[in-house]
Design goal:
The chain has helices at residues 25-36, 53-60, 74-87, 98-103, 122-135, 178-182, 226-235, 252-264, 277-282, 284-292, 307-312, 319-331, 348-359, 379-382, 408-425, 437-456; strands spanning 2-7, 20-21, 40-45, 64-67, 92-95, 114-116, 151-155, 158-161, 188-189, 195-198, 201-202, 222-223, 240-243, 270-275, 295-303, 335-342, 366-369. With 458 residues, the protein is an alpha/beta fold. The two termini are 25 Å apart.
């Protein structure tokens, strides 16, 4: 079968930067699954491929179209689906990805044929085998669709939701990186370039109440065998690897074995990971060894600068642990990419205090606005108070709840002031050393032109 795999263009603030760009690993996985069963799959990454949709459809003549996307791309995914169906209603459209996995009901109004609400891809192969059999006129069992877990489909015009199953990333194939190698020079995280993504786990064992990721895979954490992770890393021809696990620093024994295998295989790469401050604070020696084998940056959710606020997020980390974490990363020359939250109870003075707290420490921060993202634990409590139901705004950069001490406009101003001041303060950091700011400005112009072109030729 001919299958077109679509990654929509980036939406919002992220679309204007080329300083953080990642390969479409989710589509590389789908591509691998389809190729392994003899289908002809084509990746259409609309971030880089400016061909308009109709022309792409005419060229590939797909029988199946798969569309991925995040919450901010929900409307775009639905629009792409509509356009595919308008072009040829006979094309089967499957929607999937992080947002569909949890918020699949948001897509019930779309013209999609199938919604795929699992973390892995094993059952996608079953679905496509079903479609192939159906198209070739072979007899399919009446309950064939009912037997595929984790999909939604219409039965007599009504959406049927098959139950979820817990999966393990051990079932993922080794992704075909053909697309990655063809476009390698694009992919980077600031000074780390070229950079590959490696997916090693689903979900997270902790339960921070603002977190969407922890609820994926039915809320059950699962990770790959460490030898499989290291084998995949060793094969990658790239100097830097971003392990996308929501928390890579979970198990001490696992990490010591990771260190041993990386050394044994002579792997020399830089690693970027997500980790928790409490783990780092209590495992100084392990962090030192991780730094020695190439750990270069940890994105760590520091979130707040006092214990009460940390408790309010159910973070289960203390301010003391945050401070220890910052010290340990600093002493081991690991970038501390600290993630912080500004919340709607903050006063102007709180913004100033937060600036000073961060500026006094060795942190390269990213500040998010407290966002009750649909799919997180806090969402049901805050849903009614949301100032907008536009999911495009759930990008962690918008103020979606009424601030207590100022208007939304003032809050947004304070937020951008804080972010820009911190960026300016860190402008000489080695992390930004490779940034070409003139190039970045020209890139913004290019994005504006592309957006204008897409208004006419979608
Ligand atoms: C790396 C990353 C990024 C990268 C981009 C990566 C990329 N390839 O485009 C950057 C830093 C640019 C980024 C930006 C943003 N991100 Co981000 N990001 C991630 C992160 C850490 C890893 C994603 C990844 O590449 N995973 C690897 C792939 C292989 O895994 P996967 O996406 O889970 O896909 C699997 C399945 O879902 C399935 N699948 C995927 N697509 C499809 C499609 C079909 C049809 C099928 C059948 C199956 C399928 O196959 C894969 C196999 O396991 C996740 C965290 C997480 N746990 O997912 C957040 C995450 C995806 N990001 C998120 C968000 C909100 C954003 C932003 C909107 C805001 C922000 N401030 O970060 C922007 C928007 C960018 C945009 N595209 O418009 C949210 C999405 C929530 C949601 N409801 O969708 C996540 C979950 C984190 C969070 N805060 O909760 N992100
Ligand atoms: S914020 Fe991080 S530690 Fe907390 S639940 Fe989410 S992934 Fe886990």
């Amino acid at each position: 079968m001919r299958i077109l795999l679509i990654k929509p263009e980036t939406v919002g603030v992220f679309s204007y930067t080329c300083l953080v760009e990642h390969e479409p690993l989710e589509l590389e996985y789908l591509y691998t699954v389809f190729r392994q069963q003899g289908d002809h799959a084509v990746i259409y990454d609309r971030r880089y491929d400016l061909t308009c949709l109709k022309r792409k459809l005419a060229k590939v003549r797909p029988e199946v179209v798969c569309i991925t996307g995040y919450i901010t791309q929900q409307k775009l995914m639905i629009r792409l689906c509509d356009e595919v169906k308008a072009y040829d209603p006979g094309i089967a459209v499957i929607l999937g990805g992080s947002n569909v996995e949890i918020n699949y009901r948001n897509y019930f109004e779309s013209r999609a044929d199938f919604l795929y609400h699992l973390s892995g891809v094993a059952n996608l192969a079953k679905l496509v085998r079903y479609l192939r059999a159906q198209r070739s006129g072979r007899k399919v069992k009446a309950d064939a669709l009912e037997r595929i877990p984790g999909i939604c489909y219409r039965k007599d015009g009504v959406w049927t939701v098959n139950p979820k199953i817990y999966e393990s990333p051990e079932d993922l194939p080794v992704p075909d990186r053909g697309f990655f190698y063809q476009n390698k020079r694009r992919f980077r995280y600031l000074c780390f370039r070229p950079l590959a993504l490696v997916k090693n786990s689903y979900s997270c064992r902790k339960a921070c109440n603002f977190c969407f990721c922890t609820n994926r895979n039915g809320g059950r954490y699962a990770c790959r065998k460490v030898e499989h992770l290291v084998d995949e890393i060793a094969l990658l021809d790239v100097p830097a690897i971003h392990i996308t696990d929501d928390d890579f620093l979970v198990d001490e024994d696992y990490l010591w074995e990771f260190i041993r295998l990386i050394r044994e295989k002579g792997v020399r790469k830089k690693f970027l990971i997500y980790g928790r401050a409490d783990f780092i604070a209590h495992h100084e020696e392990l962090m030192r060894e991780l730094a020695r084998i190439g750990l270069a940056l940890v994105m760590v959710g520091l979130e707040a600068t006092d214990d009460a606020e940390l408790d309010s997020y159910n973070k289960r980390v203390t301010l003391r642990e945050n401070e220890e974490c910052i010290r340990i990363l600093h002493e081991n020359h690991i970038f501390c990419a600290g993630l912080f939250i500004v919340h709607q109870q903050m006063t102007k003075q709180d913004f100033r205090k937060l600036y000073q707290w961060i500026a006094d420490r060795d942190i390269i921060p990213t500040i998010s606005v407290f966002t009750p993202m649909q799919g997180s634990a806090v969402y049901p409590r805050c849903e009614k108070e949301l100032l907008t139901d536009d999911v495009t705004k759930q990008d962690l950069f918008h103020c979606l709840l009424q601030p207590e001490h100022m208007s939304v406009r003032q809050f947004t101003l304070e937020y951008y002031k804080l972010s820009l001041k911190l960026m300016w303060k860190n402008r000489k950091s080695a992390l930004y050393a490779e940034n070409n700011y003139l190039g970045a400005m020209l890139y913004i112009l290019w994005v504006l032109l592309v957006k204008a072109k897409r208004k006419v030729w979608f």
